[in-house]
């Protein structure tokens, strides 16, 4: 199943659980936990992970280190601090709120680390009704991992993101092979995937769309409803990258942004944590 509505991939303590096995691919995974009074304990096994508060705050204990993640009121209130969990690590989470754990199968064991919200690079992409915000908290340039890449994208109501549509399923100059997960908050919105793997789904908080191949985009925020998605990516390349190829039919869209104003609704909540 490529579109996974919220509630259909729950398992144990996880409100959402996507593994390489359940997705029928090799690298990418994602877990979502709704924390309350009960702590969540688990082992990372062969996956490196991040702990990213979507709302609320939490405490992370890993490898004997204790980290407090101050989090945020919601995904629309600015970037959050986060924690990195290496492979073969025992972990305990406690707190209140919704927490995302992007994951990727890995081989190098890096140290447990804390990522401050203040260090998260915030990028504004596009213009006009293609304006969106990207929180590059775990892009290849911003934070070191073995294979895992993760970014947050926030799209004001009525705008399109992941646009022009693009793909990363072929190893060639300027393009990498990457599996990708979209996890949504806010909405409703709509997600398109096509080119050998077709999806057109209405999405809202807690939904997931898997992209094993093909062009993906646009991600459309319904007018009046801001849309958030967490992108989790991983692939076979030793060097982490987000290299992609635009659909050549729509690549001209990028040049159309020149001279268009940036949507004043972005950035969302920078400095409000």
TrEMBL record:
Domain of life: Bacteria
Organism: Microbispora corallina
Classification via InterPro entries: Deoxy-glucuronate_isom_IolB, KduI/IolB_isomerase, RmlC-like_jellyroll, RmlC_Cupin_sf
Organism ancestry: Bacteria, Bacillati, Actinomycetota, Actinomycetes, Streptosporangiales
UniProt entry tagged with the keyword Isomerase: yes
The keyword Isomerase is assigned to this record: yes
Protein name per Swiss-Prot or TrEMBL: 5-deoxy-glucuronate isomerase
Pfam families the record matches: KduI (PF04962)
Gene Ontology molecular functions: isomerase activity
Keywords on record: Isomerase
